[in-house]
Amino acid sequence: MAILAKFLKTAAVAATALGLAAGAAQAEKKDLTLAYVEWSDTVVATNIVKTVLEEAGYKVKLVPLSGAAMWQAVATGEADAMVAGWLPATHEAYNAKLKDKVVNLGPNLSGAKIGWAVPTYVDIASIEDINKDPAKFGGKVIGIDPGAGLMKASENAIKEYDLKVKLVEGSDATMVAALKDAYTKKEPIVITTWTPHWMFAEWDLKYLADPKNVFGGEETVNTIVSTKLKEEAPEAYKILDNFSLSLDDEQKVMVENNKPGADPAATAKAWVAANKATVDAWMK
Fold first, then answer.
1. Phi-psi category of 145—alpha, beta or left, where left has phi over 0 and alpha has psi -120 to 50?
2. 113-207 belongs to CATH 3.10.450.40
3. What are the residue boundaries of the ABC-type glycine betaine transport system substrate-binding domain, all occurrences included (predicted)?
């Protein structure tokens, strides 16, 4: 009887352990939220990550936000991750405020930069040259969404160079539309911009020199995740930790996304299908 009792007790313990293990496996989070800003490069990277996570069995929701709200969403856990953390300069303020509430998995893209650009037919080479004839540019610099790190840097540039121009708020789309219109008419225009961006493949543009280094040097785009993700969804964490793109790959997909009728989700799936070895490496 004693042997039977001991056997039953051991079986009960084993069953409990198995039950706990099963419960832990069942508890793994499978619904994920990715925050992003509707910039051309971020749309590409976010949709590619979404496609890969879905292939790994996750259900992924994309939520477009402003830059500040994107960081805040990951910090509060409302979003699980984002792949658009521009560091060290562009998102410096967001990172300084929230770095202890998120996990930075490191760069997913290198060689990024921000600044101002003009079409190559415009005969200026430096930001300070704008003051020679601000009226030629309508007294304005065409910007993107208010609150973006690029916009804050642009405001600083106007002060540092004592420019007699106004920074016009808008979005990636409105900035590109203004550039397209000016380029078609061969009119002078100054735009806020960044690399990677498909418009450098579409039009002949040049960055304006920044002798005061207001916009900083080369940057990286980083993957930022919630502090709970590694515990809640370890496989997703692994994929996000391994995720990286080259400038060339990202810009090629951006060009595809800019074609009439293009669907960013579809172009992302096509890229994933065509780059199986790269994707497999992210999932190992």
1. beta
2. no
3. 30-273
